[in-house]
Design goal:
By secondary structure, the chain is an alpha/beta fold. The protein has a single domain, classed as NAD(P)-binding Rossmann-like Domain (Rossmann fold, 3-Layer(aba) Sandwich), CATH 3.40.50.720. The chain is built from 8 helices and 7 strands, in the order E-H-E-H-E-H-E-H-E-H-E-H-H-H-E. Strands 3-2-1-4-5-6-7 form a 7-stranded parallel beta sheet, sandwiched between helices. Helix 1 links the parallel strand 1 and strand 2. It is globular and about 50 Å long.
């Protein structure tokens, strides 16, 4: 039986790295992107290979739509050379950044950066990779708990993720004839370097979030990578067009 192949954007660190490693543990081969940290990416490749799968890292700036055609060609060449395949099976649109600014203080440059990475980039990268995505495949987009509850400082960021949640439904509808299921995972607050690592490193913020979470703690990367990997398993093939929040029950 041939192995499945996943593409994960932003797989060298944080939730993307955790997703790559969870997929590897489930026997899924992985191609992932990184923006600038090649050494970190190579370490993730080694860790995935130690789990017994094939892995590769490709450089990509997900904010630069002009690069997507060339990236798709790179993926096609890599699939042919390393896998003797023409298509991959799963796409995880994970790459992202966090900008914390009040609505009144959000600059147009910040807005554009968030849009290019979190919405425009996801839209057109998915479009560029669709010819290489196998019929019956899956797409998982990443959103945030901040589309359900509102916290000051995330108006622009959460708006982009709200757009992703709407896009997910449209992708599920339009790609349904190809048997492609599309879902969105919305993490709550997670202890990573995201947004400068404030949730991980600021004890007061960490404790406040934990107190507002039903399970009594802040999330860690393992809480999310496992959800994404599980969603891509055959057991969950009938889940489609759904927003799945993985927040431990924040702000219920």
């Amino acid at each position: 039986m041939r192995s499945k192949i996943a593409i994960v954007t932003g797989g060298s660190r944080g939730l993307g790295k955790n997703t790559v490693l969870h997929l590897a543990q489930k026997g899924v081969d992985v191609i992932f992107t990184y923006r600038s940290q090649q050494a970190e990416a190579e370490a993730v490749v080694s860790a995935a290979e130690q789990a017994g799968v094939r892995a590769a890292a490709l450089q990509l700036d997900v904010a630069d739509c002009r690069a997507f055609g060339g990236f798709a060609a790179q993926v096609q060449d890599l699939l042919r050379e390393q896998w003797r395949r023409e298509q991959f099976d799963f796409l995880v649109n994970n790459a992202g950044i966090g900008i914390n600014a009040s609505f009144t203080d959000t600059a147009e440059t910040q807005f554009d950066q968030l849009m290019n990475i979190h919405f425009k980039g996801v839209f057109f990268l998915t479009q560029a990779l669709l010819p290489l995505l196998a019929d019956g495949g899956r797409i998982v987009n990443l959103s945030t708990g901040l589309t359900r509850f509102a916290l000051p400082g995330f108006a622009a960021y959460a708006s982009m993720k709200g757009a992703i949640e709407v896009l997910t439904k449209y992708l599920a509808k339009e790609l349904g004839p190809r048997g492609i299921a599309v879902n969105v995972v919305a993490p709550g607050a997670i202890e990573t370097d995201f947004g400068g690592g404030v949730v991980r490193d600021n004890a007061q913020i960490n404790a406040h979030i934990a107190a507002q979470t039903a399970l009594g703690r802040v999330g860690v990367p393992d809480d999310i990578g496992g959800v994404i990997a599980a969603l891509l398993s055959d057991d969950n093939r009938w889940i489609n067009a759904q927003r799945i929040e993985a927040s431990g029950g924040m702000f219920l």
